[in-house]
Structures are given as structure tokens and as C-alpha cells.
Amino acid sequence: MTTKIMGTPSEGNMNDMEIMVEHSLEYRNIIHDYWTLASRPTLTESEADRLEEILHKAQSEPLLEFLLDEIDHILAHELGLLDEQFIKHQQDELRKAIDQAWCEQVLLEIRNRSKAIQKYLKGKGFYTGAIDGQIGPRTQEAIALLKKEANLKFERLEFFDVETWSIC
Questions:
Q1: N or C, where is the chain less crowded by C-beta within 10 Å?
Q2: 142 and 113 fall within a common domain
Q3: What DSSP string describes 100-124?
């Protein structure tokens, strides 16, 4: 008995690429029909029905959907419908938006963690200020008091576990 480990082909079995090619060949006629229909400027009613049938089938068959997406991309190039500069610009804008959203999420996490630390310190009687997420002089003083009482020597509160509300 041969086994397949981590996507590598085993002796006697087809590898993933061969399997994909074999399944792709099963879609050959469908792909040909799609290419023919999608490249026409107008369709008859029966052609539109066939195109709809192909698209409906692709919704439940991921490989066919992938192949049709590739055909759409090739057709878009063939027909001059893709503006590479515009696509690059859109990708850059998306990257900036994702980066900004990520930074905002990190800042929110830091603020929430800081609030959790302040709440913990207040519960232990070391902190009397507002639970506002700002690590100012009062919070720093409370951290110093906690470290002194616990005889801790670390410099940062990266060892504070907000899940268990304890120093790790």
C-alpha cells in the first residue's frame, strides 16, 4: 500500500497535476462552448440559455468555475478590456486600505489590552485612575508597584495574560 504525504505523489498514483488535467479534459467541450459564446458580441436566446447552463454548472463545480475564470481573464486581454495600470492602481489602493484597517485593528487591540491591564491593576488596588487605555504616569506607577510587590524584574508587561487576568 502506498500513501500520499503532504501533497506529494506516491508510486502508482496520479499526482495532483495529472488529476487536474484529467478532470479539465472532462470539461473540454463545456470550455469550448463557453469560449465561443463569451467571445460573441450578441447571443441568440438558445445561446444565452446554454451560457446560463454552463455558469449554473460552474457554481457547484469549483474546477469548472476556476477554468471559466481563467477563460474570462484571457478573453478580457484578447478584447482589450483590461487596463493594467488601472488594475495596479486599484491593487495599490486596496493594499493601502488593508494596511490602514490592520493598523487600526492593532491600535484597538493595544488600547483594549491597556484597558485590561488598568482594570487588573485597579482590582488589585494599585491603580486609581480612569480605565481609558492610556498608559500614562499613573498606570506606569501602578505597574511599578505591582512589580515591586511581586518582586518581578521584567521591564514590559508583555507577560500579562488578559484571559486569566494574571502575570505569567
A1: N
A2: yes
A3: HHHHHHHHHHHHHHHHHHHHHHHHT
122 part of a folded domain = yes
Q: Is the pLDDT of residue 168 over 60?
A: no
For range 37-63, the mean pLDDT = 95
With cut-offs at 50, 70 and 90, classify the pLDDT of residue 14: low
State the residue range of the domain holding 108: 102-167
What pLDDT shows up at residue 158? 52
For residues 67 and 114, membership in a common domain is answered with no
> Long-range contacts: 114-119, Cβ < 8 Å, 24+?
114/139, 116/160, 116/162, 116/165, 117/143, 117/157, 117/160, 117/162, 118/142
**Residue 162 grid cell:** 488578559
Which residue is it, cell 447571443? 43
The pTM for the full model equals 0.46
